[in-house]
Write a structure and sequence with these properties.
The structure holds 2 protein chains of 2 kinds. Helix content of chain A is 39%, strand content 21%. Chain A is globular, with a radius of gyration of 25 Å. In chain A, α4 runs parallel beside α7 and α6 crosses α7. In chain A, β7, α8 and β8 form a beta-alpha-beta unit. Chain A is an alpha/beta fold. Chain A has 11 helices and 10 strands. Chain B is mainly α. Chain B has one domain. In chain B, α3 crosses α12. Classes of the chains: A alpha/beta, B mainly alpha. At the A-B interface, α3, α4, α5, α6 and α7 of A face α1, α9, α10 and α11 of B.
Chain lengths: 302, 378
């Protein structure tokens, strides 16, 4: 061995180490916890690996010059139960319209998870991706039976041909039976939905939402017209869904909001959002929001 | 949700009884209708001598055949209006298009027996045309024209429906557009240049498949055929309504928004039933033309389409037997009225429609059911 060769060898080794070090720094995330190259099982499956289920970003909607939503930004985390309050005309329902594809905004972005662009999909597509929506006025199929209402909501192929050939399996029956029990309509399966009381219709609609197995539930005044007892049971139901589902509840009833915020998993601090004139006025814990001067001003019109 | 075990017979307690397509009683009724159609009517008309009280006149046979064609239209209207909640005031157009497709074939069957003894239909000779227009290309072929009977109304309905439903045109707006569509088509068919005989339409038919039309046996055959088609369509509609697809249609009628947000693309549901409904009307028109012996643009008039809706409403929407009863009742009343008090028929029809709308939202069938339920309570 000559000194030249020794020297060359050491140079090579140095170069190799330097290269390795460089590749190490370039790809610090390339270890075992690497997140890229992750396979999302299907293109229409929602990707929530970053912890967010809904991203509404800078959304503006105008109707004949009136700005129903004004650069609204709102993020909902996976498993979160978010309450949204606001005076009439604050843009709560318009916000839901945008998220569910009913209204196309003038500008802004809205994503379901980090991969599904809500603004490019139709209502039915958004619904089958896992966004369920309850209307302000209870909306059920009045002339069908309670059972049939749930059957139609059952998660399955929604295409025409599949519907023509469809037969309920015993697993489907079990699921419907389970849901009837959950929404306290166990003995009403064969009743016509139109004959139910207002509160029962609200429950049926919530049941229909759950049959779709949604990941995100948008609930527009879910306890309107319910008795106190029904309201309490609804709060219990929503709290039981928290964690496994993400919920956005728009409500006027502050007592109900209080039940939702203070119940359930107490260790998690729940956020309440106040909308006003199409954008977020305040966001934070219920007590903080209620103490917020601007919120008080808006609500009491001082 | 916790998966608790269910009581021993959960299905029976929660699910409404699943209606099988035909109960035993239903099967008996279908068999009876078949027997009447295939045996009794031909026997009464052809075998029983004209002097007997049981003889069924040729007039009665063709009237029955005609009314059954109307009943098919009413049934088709029920699928789209009664079950899906989409009121069409243009179904007469699909009926007429089916009729015209049949009429073209019948015109070619006249051959050289027309007034001018030409290969071309008489009206073309009269207009001094040397060749038939391109639309008549396949009219010599029975099979080709029979395909057109369903294909033309179906295609028109599909294209029209696709754009209307995709643009979310609903309710009264949709009804008005369908009305305008049939009116526009009527104006088009009134023109001689359109190539379908102008305002006279087609008439003076001689034979079908080489067999003369103006005979008793042909009349009975067509009447029986119409009855069989009506029965077939009725059973088909029953199967459709009993399927989950049928329940989605009713859900669209009750709350389309909910259906959309439940993940169904309602466009394809509405479009498929709309197109099927139009094709059924086309078949009805094709059966109608050889029995009445004429087709002209009058069948496309708005009033003709409105009448279809009236049959359905009078009989009872969202019941399958209702529209058939309605067609029989209203056209039966019309046959009698226009003979007894011809000038009062339209007043009667108007009054009937108002009365049904105000007092019988479920039509005749609803009334019968109500009375039956009352009787049951006693």
């Amino acid at each position: 061995m000559t000194p030249d060769l020794l020297e060359e060898g050491s140079k090579r080794r140095e170069a190799y180490l330097a290269k390795q070090a460089a590749s190490q720094t370039a790809g610090t995330s390339g270890g075992q916890s690497a997140s890229y190259g992750r396979v999302v099982s299907a293109a229409d499956e929602v990707d929530v690996v970053h912890g967010g289920i809904l991203y509404v970003d800078d959304i503006t909607v105008s109707f004949d010059g009136f700005r129903a939503l004004n650069k609204l930004t709102l993020n909902i985390a996976v498993g979160e139960l978010r309450c949204i309050i606001g005076p009439n005309g604050a843009g709560k329902t318009t916000m839901m319209d945008v998220i569910t594809g009913k209204t196309k905004p003038d500008s802004g972005r809205a994503f379901f998870g980090s991969n599904i662009d809500l603004l490019r999909l139709r209502e039915s597509e958004i619904a089958s991706r896992g966004v369920g929506r309850k209307f302000q006025k209870p909306t059920v199929f009045e002339q069908l039976s309670v059972f049939e209402n749930l059957e139609l909501a059952l998660k399955m192929d929604r295409r025409v041909r599949a519907s023509l050939m469809h037969k309920l399996t015993s697993a489907d029956f079990d699921r419907i039976a389970e849901m009837l029990k959950l929404i306290h309509l166990r003995d009403s399966g064969s009743r016509t939905a139109g004959d139910l009381s207002h509160g029962q219709k609200q429950w049926l609609e919530i049941g229909m939402l759950l049959m779709q197995d949604p990941k995100l539930l948008l609930l527009d005044e879910p306890v309107a017209g319910m008795t106190d007892e029904e309201t309490e049971r609804t709060a219990e139901l929503f709290l039981s869904l928290e964690g496994s589902h993400s919920l956005v509840v728009v409500e006027h009833d502050m007592k109900f909001i209080g039940e939702l915020v203070n119940g359930g998993q107490r260790e998690k601090k729940k956020i309440v959002t106040v909308l006003h004139e199409g954008s977020v006025l305040a966001e934070g814990a219920l007590a903080d929001v209620q103490a917020n001067e601007r919120v008080v001003e808006v609500y009491l019109g001082r | 949700m916790n998966t608790t075990t269910l009581p021993s017979s959960p299905i029976a307690s929660i699910a409404p009884p699943v209606p099988s397509l035909l109960t035993l009683r239903g099967k008996v009724v279908v068999a009876a209708v078949l027997a009447i159609l295939v045996v009794i009517i031909p026997v009464l008309n052809v075998m029983v001598p004209a002097t007997s009280a049981f003889h069924m006149s040729d007039y009665a046979v063709s009237l029955l055949g005609k009314i059954m064609c109307y009943a098919i239209c009413a049934l088709a209207m029920d699928l789209i209006w009664g079950y899906t909640g989409i009121l069409s005031l243009g179904h007469g157009l699909f009926f007429a298009l089916g009729g015209y497709a049949m009429g073209m074939y019948l015109m070619r069957q006249i051959g050289r027996d027309g007034v001018y003894h030409s290969d071309l239909p008489d009206f073309m000779v009269f207009l001094d045309w040397k060749t038939a227009p391109w639309t008549w290309a396949g009219s010599e072929s029975f099979i080709f024209q029979m395909i057109l009977v369903v294909a033309v109304p179906g295609l028109l309905a599909f294209i029209f429906g696709y754009f209307a439903f995709r643009s979310r045109i609903k309710g009264v707006y949709f009804s008005i557009i369908t009305q305008a569509l049939t009116f526009a088509a009527m104006l088009l068919f009134f023109r001689n240049e359109t190539g379908f005989g102008g305002n006279n339409g087609f008439t003076d038919f001689k034979r079908i498949l080489g067999i003369p039309t103006a005979t008793s046996s042909m009349r009975v055959t067509l009447c029986v055929l119409t009855g069989l088609v009506l029965l077939g369509f009725y059973l088909m509609s029953k199967a459709i309504i009993a399927s989950k697809y049928g329940r989605v249609l009713q859900a669209i009628r009750d709350a389309e928004g909910r259906v959309l947000f439940t993940g169904y693309n309602t466009l394809w549901y509405k479009l498929s039933i709309w197109t099927l409904s139009a094709m059924m009307c086309g078949v009805a028109g094709a059966l109608y033309v050889p029995q009445v012996g004429i087709i002209n643009p009058g069948e496309m008039s708005p009033a003709a389409s409105i009448e279809i809706a009236i049959w359905t409403a009078v009989g009872g929407r969202a019941t399958l037997i209702g529209p058939i009863i309605g067609a029989f009742f209203v056209t039966g009343a019309k046959s009698w009225f226009t003979v007894a008090f011809p000038e009062y028929w339209l007043y009667f029809l108007g009054a009937l429609f108002i009365a049904v709308t105000l007092f019988l939202p479920q039509g005749i069938v609803g009334l019968v059911r109500k009375l039956a339920a009352k009787g049951g309570v006693k």
